[in-house]
Specification:
Blueprint (H helix, E strand, L loop, with lengths): L19 H6 L5 H5 L5 H18 L7 H12 L2 H14 L1 H10 L2 H24 L5 H14 L1
Helix pairs in contact: 3-4, 3-5, 5-7, 5-8, 7-8
Length: 150
């Protein structure tokens, strides 16, 4: 059959173009995997706002501080890259967000998540806050790479 032929024998479905290893990696329930996908930016925004509210409730006895107010304003208008960085930093400090992410993880990915959270706390967030040369994009990529490799 050539390109000039008017007969089509079989329609090719979208799934035939998706490599098997990518299709297996995608878990619709796994919050962390969804967070790394820009398609789920609004989900990440909602999780960030819930996390900020949780921190205000637990740490600041239901009070809004200047910092949490500014974080809410930033999260409301931030692009996906900045929003993901905020999400990852909150994941480092908010036990409620950690629990939600851990509960959403498949049994196979729980060990990956635990390793990633340890490295996030001890290395990646520290480097992000102390080294001005670490951009939000490179921080996000380092976190995603770490999760994939873990």
């Amino acid at each position: 059959m050539t390109c000039a032929s008017h007969q089509v024998r079989k329609l090719v479905t979208h799934s035939e173009f998706v490599p098997v290893h990518i299709a297996k990696r995608s878990n619709p329930c796994d919050l962390l995997e969804r967070a790394f996908d820009n398609m789920h930016c609004e989900l990440v925004r909602r999780l960030v706002h819930q996390s900020i509210a949780s921190i205000e409730k637990v740490v600041f006895q239901n009070a809004e501080t200047a910092e949490t107010h500014q974080l809410k304003l930033t999260a409301a208008t931030a692009d996906c890259t900045v929003l993901l960085s905020i999400f990852l930093c909150l994941l480092n400090v908010d036990p409620g967000l950690k629990d939600a992410v851990m509960l959403s993880a498949t049994p196979h990915n729980k060990h990956k998540l635990a390793g990633m959270l340890q490295h996030l706390r001890h290395t990646l967030v520290v480097d992000f806050y102390t080294d001005e040369s670490v951009s939000t994009a490179s921080f996000n990529h380092a976190c995603e790479d770490l999760y994939i490799v873990s």
